[in-house]
Amino acid sequence: MSSVASAPVRVRFCPSPTGNPHVGLVRTALFNWAFAKHHQGTLVFRIEDTDAARDSEESYDQLLDSMRWLGFDWDEGPEVGGPHAPYRQSQRMDRYKEIAQQLLDGGHAYHCYCSQDELDARREAARAAGRPSGYDGHCRDLTAAQVEEYKAQGREPIVRFRMPDETITFTDLVRGELTFTPENVPDYGIVRANGAPLYTLVNPVDDALMEITHVLRGEDLLSSTPRQIALYKALMELGIAKGIPAFGHLPYVMGEGNKKLSKRDPESSLNLYRERGFLPEGLLNYLSLLGWSLSADQDIFTMDEMVAAFDVTDVQPNPARFDLKKCESINGDHIRLLDVKDFTERCRPWLQAPFAPWAPEAFDEVKWQAIAPHAQTRLKVLSEITDNVDFLFLAEPVLDEQSWTKAMKEGSDALLRTAREKLEAADWASPESLKEAVLAAGEAHGLKLGKAQAPVRVAVTGRTVGLPLFESLEVLGKDTTLARIDAALAKLAA
């Protein structure tokens, strides 16, 4: 079997513009991108948009926007161009029609006139008899008279590829040597009756024309590989393909209940992660762990570190389960790796409408810059910043009633009065001084710091959990802090 895998690496990422991009698609793009970068090769970004009923320009624009957001730079494709343009299949139809005719003329394909009802009936009969239920070759060798009879009936044929009567064996880069026998790989359609080419034709044809050396794709496409290898051989005979690429089939990404994560699962949508404030580098770090690892003891790494180490033969074939909590944890680690200035800028969208509950004029840049380093240590996703800092920019804190009930125990009013006295006398240029004030108030009432600061936190921020309290009080300021404690005392008295 002639292979092109020894040539300079050329891989492709070829999604269909149907709906929002999902994390399984992103994982496939990531592995192709990292493989190309590792080998100083070429990443071809190709759009498979031959399904006019499902494809849309909106989804196409989303795909390009998502690739840019993720930081994937492609060497050939939309907006970049390249020697094999165009890179949208909808613009390559004449070439597919030409090659389909060449396959027919060369005896590698034939017209099939079987109706769907006939196909279904023969498949059912094959199943009942315990035989393989794939296409039975009914139209493989029609006589001229049979063809004329079908035409007289008004039947419009599809084009089927003629599979060779031979076992096909190839070495998968992830799964090792795989073998498919002829009875399990029947002839298959490559052109619809209306003349529209099918994925089974256009995908390998474009790979051949674009001289792709390695095909890294999902495990769900594994069953189509022997068919494509046979088609490559035919294309080589016709002088269209130079060889057969190496294949690597990536493991499934599993969701809840150990079911394959599908586009319909809410947690699969890339847009969801963008809206929640995942960093591209954090999300990609986690997705890379779905089937691959940098080392046994290192989960957190940069994309540069991944590129330096990535080898597709290290990808594990077993399905990988998507764990949202681990994804959030890794993203939080990447948030803490950011330069503080970078962090403050990346949070901007969640500090403005429509996410921010405060008026634009209430936002205070000085307060934001002061609190940002403390917020950076606490967030898992950037969208959490809104609730964490709203107490700084709202006239009154958003009071969580459960937090109030939990913190305001019997005697909390006396504690708050003492804390107010201590805080009023404290040095507000020092968070440590504010901590000492609340610690002293607690000691006066027989409470440790943890118990003493809870009523103060709820009075000032509205919640029992949040950013470091004493740094928060310092940024909020003395007057506002004392006024909120007074308001809490009034509420307790009522």
From TrEMBL:
A Pfam family matched in the record: tRNA-synt_1c
Subcellular localization(s) per the UniProt record: Cytoplasm
Key words, A-Z: Aminoacyl-tRNA synthetase, ATP-binding, Cytoplasm, Ligase, Metal-binding, Nucleotide-binding, Protein biosynthesis, Zinc
Domain Aminoacyl-tRNA synthetase class I anticodon-binding: 343-489
Cofactors demanded by this protein: Zn(2+)
Catalytic function, reaction form: tRNA(Glu) + L-glutamate + ATP = L-glutamyl-tRNA(Glu) + AMP + diphosphate
Cofactor note: Binds 1 zinc ion per subunit.
GO molecular function annotations of the record: glutamate-tRNA ligase activity
Domain of life according to the entry: Bacteria
Enzyme Commission no: 6.1.1.17
UniProt enzyme class: ligase
Binding of ATP, residues: K263
Span of the annotated motif 'HIGH' region: 15-25
Domain Glutamyl/glutaminyl-tRNA synthetase class Ib catalytic: 9-326
Annotated motif 'KMSKS' region, positions: 260-264
Residues annotated as binding Zn(2+): C112, C114, C139, D141
InterPro entries noted in UniProt: aa-tRNA-synth_I_cd-bd, aa-tRNA-synth_I_codon-bd_sub2, aa_tRNA-synth_I_cd-bd_sf, Glu-tRNA-ligase_bac/mito, Glu-tRNA-synth_I_codon-bd_sub1, Glu/Gln-tRNA-synth, Glu/Gln-tRNA-synth_Ib_cat-dom, GluQ/Sye
Family: Belongs to the class-I aminoacyl-tRNA synthetase family. Glutamate--tRNA ligase type 1 subfamily.
Role summary: Catalyzes the attachment of glutamate to tRNA(Glu) in a two-step reaction: glutamate is first activated by ATP to form Glu-AMP and then transferred to the acceptor end of tRNA(Glu).
Subunit structure: Monomer.
Name this protein carries in UniProt: Glutamate--tRNA ligase
Organism of this sequence: Streptomyces lanatus
UniProt gene name: gltX
